[in-house]
Amino acid sequence: MGEPQYLSYPQLSLAQSVFTIASPYASSQSKQTSLTALQDGIRENKMAPLYAYLAHPQTGKINASGESGSAAMSPTLSRQSTSGQQSSNTAAGTPSPEHMLRRTSSINTPSIVGVLGGKKDTSVDLPWDEKLYEELKAENEKELAAIQKEEDDAVERSGETEIQNARGKRAEYYAQIGDKDKALEEFEKLIEKTAILGSKIDIVLAIIRIGLFFDDKLLVKKNIDRAGLLVESGGDWDRRNRLKAYQGLHLLTIRAHNLAAPLLLDSLSTFTSTELCPYSSLVVYATLAGAVSLPRRDFKSKVVDAPEIRAVFGSDAETDRLSALAGSASAGPGEGDEHAADTEMSEATTTPKPTAVNLTTLAQGSADAEAQALAEPVIDFKPLASMIQSLYSGTYSTFFTSLASVEQHFLTTDRFLYEHRTWYVREMRLRAYAQLLASYKVVSLESMARSFGVSVEWLDRDLAPFIASERLACRIDRVKGVVETRRSGEKSKQYGDVVRQGDQLITKLQKYGQVVRLRGSER
User: N or C: which end of the chain has fewer CB within 10 A?
Assistant: First the structure.
């Protein structure tokens, strides 16, 4: 089907820079670094529409006078496309994608800083320069005129392929400069005139990235379903794997971690979607999703002992980290592998253990895997590695400390994770409580609090909502100072299911009997 197209734009790293500038949790240094990266990106890519969208004195999204988290859009970005999608879905009689996205509040305000919920920090803003804006706008008009001339020449002298190439350049250029509405319009026109299946999939994936850039979850949901249908109709291996990463990331943003985990974990060994996120970020997303959603046995095999994850988490030295990200056969021992060397020597005659392999070398333009690894962001994975190891091993005081570090260094700093950070921390605490209580029938509050490194009063307050909502099968006896678990065996569960289903069957039979009697009396 040919090489993938339209992978360069939009650059999602710029959206992350915007988030960091507006985030109330980011440090001053990271804000300044992100501001510099954003300004360089705007100048390099001549992004006049995005510049106006972010920095306009009246409507700039990340400035003090602009609007944040509201429905008002800048002149270069409106919700027209989103409302059009909703009305078309309703007219067709199909369920609106909004019903699938009820777990996220930012669905109501598609905006590049919508996940902040209006709580933006304006200590660092993007200065508005009218002269710069006019220069960028003039450059945009000049480039678009050149593309139009190329298309006109193709219509007169060349074939349909050259015409489509010119149209593709226009659509991609609008994506490059950050004009959402125009980019979507041109990509839709392009897909209507495209007959090649692989090109259609590439166009839809580009639309998904535009939705991710501007945090338009309805647009992303609609086009992921659209891409799925195209891939099922005959997509090649590479595009299938790319879509898997797109689906996993989208599910993560709408708090469907149980659905995202299998897709993200499967993508670790076949990841090629470097236009979506760095491989380091994929490792973080997959680990977080798996830690909160997988059963203990799967958590052990697919996260704690996963060779792709251990290759990255276990790489303390910079050279080992680069080797892991570049797909080197040896990326250093993982955590807990102190005797790896001795084991290899003693098992020289047995089947060798599989090594961690990262297939990012399959990505577009990745002939030099080492250079691609050097482009990866430097991330301190120690809090995340400590969190999953301590949870599995039952070292709960370390787990709570690591969970706090994960919230600080990962959940609050990533635009895809930020919105659900509170929910994630709460679910991880619940998982740890359930894991500890599963080993006891009765445990003292003091002993349990000591295990987690917290006070008895704090633990009592934290357990109460989980018990009240029946998410923990236990009760607290403050007089005795203990937590008593209520175990429902498999037979008890089966008995309860039989009783409940029997009641439902009796109700249906009674209704059926009433209908039969009514019809009999009519005769």
Answer: C
